[in-house]
Design goal:
Blueprint (H helix, E strand, L loop, with lengths): L4 H10 L2 H6 L1 H4 L2 H13 L3 E5 L5 H6 L5 E6 L2 H13 L5 E5 L14 E5 L8 H11 L5 E7 L5 H14 L9 H11 L1 E13 L1 H7 L4 H13 L2 H7 L7 E12 L6
Parallel strand pairs: 1-2, 1-4, 2-3, 4-5
Antiparallel strand pairs: 5-7, 6-7
Helix pairs in contact: 7-9, 8-11
Length: about 260
């Protein structure tokens, strides 16, 4: 049966919603702390979490914003986020089932937008960025965090291959240069970028996505056959664990005179 990309995303993440709430990779990190600090400084009336996943961005934003809307394609994921928010006493989080390419909000509806580890799943990445800009008030901050593709083609090919084998809903990890250019085209002004290196425990990484055994075998084969430079760059370990770069981008929605 042929499925739409949105259906693939829903299938991949719906059954694993609880795992993303408890995932240490997703529930903690310097990027989450930095995001909370930005929100505390801005104190937005209304904040948007684009592709909320396990809701970790929304939980942090809710401590400093009057209200937060957490958007995701997966209704099962949103149910878990709403339940977790209630358990944590965060009554100012609203969930919304929607595609990032068609956000159901008026222009200039939010004073802050954040997106963490979601953009590499978007069917139309640039359309999603344009929508994020559309719903933000001019001058408002936007923070994007995602795995970033290496500039070296061989490293990029390896990363995209193992990502797709692990998760069929993966579209692409973009490079820092691609991010900068796309954000500019979408109407954002980039102020600051920060890279961080994180280690991915292999068993947790594939287990969280319930990766098929045949795909796990293919991933391990690619790792074992990787050139020395590739293996060194990703720090591939004997058990398949490895390290990747993430990028935190702090931008703002351009005002009319900045376009």
């Amino acid at each position: 049966m042929i499925r739409s990309h949105d259906a693939v995303v829903e299938t991949q993440f719906g059954s694993q919603a609880a795992a993303y709430v408890s995932s240490s990779v997703h529930s903690s990190g310097e990027d989450l702390d930095a995001l909370a600090q930005i929100c505390a400084r801005v104190r937005p009336d209304r904040a948007l979490d684009i592709g909320t996943g396990g809701g970790h961005v929304a939980y942090r934003l809710a401590q400093h914003a009057r209200s937060v809307v957490a958007v995701d394609l997966s209704s099962a994921m949103l149910e878990v986020v709403a339940k977790t928010a209630r358990e944590r006493g965060l009554s100012n989080i609203e969930t919304m089932n929607a595609s990032v390419e068609r956000l159901p909000f008026d222009d200039a509806s939010f004073e802050l937008a954040a997106c963490r580890y979601s953009a590499h799943h978007w069917r139309d990445w640039e359309a999603g960025l344009r929508e994020a800009r559309r719903v933000l008030k001019p001058g408002s901050p936007a923070i994007f965090v995602d795995v970033v593709s290496p500039a070296v083609p061989a490293f990029d090919t390896h990363l995209q291959a193992v990502e797709l084998l692990r998760d069929p809903s993966h579209v692409r990890n973009y490079s820092e240069a691609e991010w900068a250019a796309a954000l500019s085209r979408a109407g954002f002004r980039v102020h600051r970028c920060e890279k961080r290196r994180i280690r991915m425990d292999y068993e947790s990484w594939v287990g969280r996505m319930q990766t098929l055994e045949a795909h796990r075998t293919a991933i391990r084969s690619l790792q074992q056959l990787a050139a020395a430079q590739t293996a060194t760059y990703f720090g591939i370990e004997a058990d398949g664990s490895f390290s990747i770069d993430t990028l935190q981008i702090e931008a703002s929605a351009c005002r009319a005179h900045e376009l």
